[in-house]
Design brief:
It contains seven helices and ten strands. By secondary structure, the protein is α/β, with parallel strands linked by helices. A hairpin with a 2-residue loop joins strand 1 and strand 2. The longest helix is centred in the last third of the chain and has 17 residues. About 40% of the residues are buried. The structure holds adenosine-5'-diphosphate and magnesium ion.
């Protein structure tokens, strides 16, 4: 489903080019969950931004579902992302002036799905994450764990081909984080969602089908 080949990315820091990703290779099958560990600053978030087309590699290629993404224009990437890829961030990134329900509906509206249909599906997803009774709450009225569950429902409503998660429990206390991640694993397994999970937590990573450590700009299979 996913082929990453010889991916390279460097950033300019004080006149110097620092090679963050030196040569990344990765193959992921449909429905597979890949855990990615690595120290702070090792390039995990950079890798996910390349996977989602929010940033572009210096060289190498990422193929998703047979599409060679380096050949996409920025506009084509935007459409491709909307249809195929969802992201869950550490900081939830809910839209503050929209209710939980409206946040979850958003990706479908971007794809042009009719409001009634989007609402029905969003309510179902909110049910899946145990938040039907919070549908009309605004983000400021939700706890961290609830916010991340809304973000998960929003990520899954399009049944994405690829789910990217960047330390999704990083902002939560241990107990809440564990509950949210149990739900995360249950739901992605149920939906057979191909998932890249970046985490600091080795125990969480070990619940994935395969685990890599990003170190010195390369993946090391654990
Ligand atoms: N847009 C950018 N410009 C310059 N340097 C960047 C940029 N984004 C990330 N970096 C640098 O790349 C390195 C990897 O960052 P990041 O991918 O966020 O690491 P991680 O998510 O593993 O903690 C860091 O040294 C960071 O400072
Ligand atoms: Mg990061």
């Amino acid at each position: 489903m996913i082929q990453v080949e010889n991916l390279k990315k460097s950033f300019k820091q004080n006149e110097n080019d620092i090679d963050i990703l030196k040569n990344l290779n990765l193959q992921v099958k449909k429905g597979e969950k890949v855990g990615i560990l690595g120290q702070s600053g090792s390039g995990k978030s950079t890798f996910l931004s390349l996977m989602s087309g929010l940033d572009f590699p210096d060289s190498g290629d990422i193929r998703i579902n047979g599409v060679s993404t380096t050949k996409l224009s920025e506009k084509e990437w935007t459409q491709f992302r909307a249809k195929n890829i969802s992201i869950v961030f550490q900081q939830y990134h809910l839209v503050g002036h929209l209710t939980a329900l409206e946040n979850v509906m958003l990706p479908l509206e971007i794809l042009g799905v009719k409001e009634k249909q989007a609402e029905e599906k969003a309510l179902t997803l909110l049910g899946e994450v145990g938040l039907k009774d919070r549908a009309h709450h605004f983000p400021y009225q939700l706890s961290g764990g609830e916010s991340q569950r809304v973000a998960m429902a929003r990520a899954l409503i399009t049944t994405p081909n690829l789910l990217l998660a960047d330390e999704p429990s990083g902002n939560l206390d241990q107990e809440t984080g564990l509950k949210v991640m149990n739900l995360f694993f249950d739901i992605t397994t149920k939906f057979n969602t191909t998932t890249l999970l970046v985490t600091h937590n080795e125990q969480l990573a070990s619940r994935c089908d395969v685990v890599y450590r990003l170190s010195q700009g390369r993946f090391e299979k654990l």
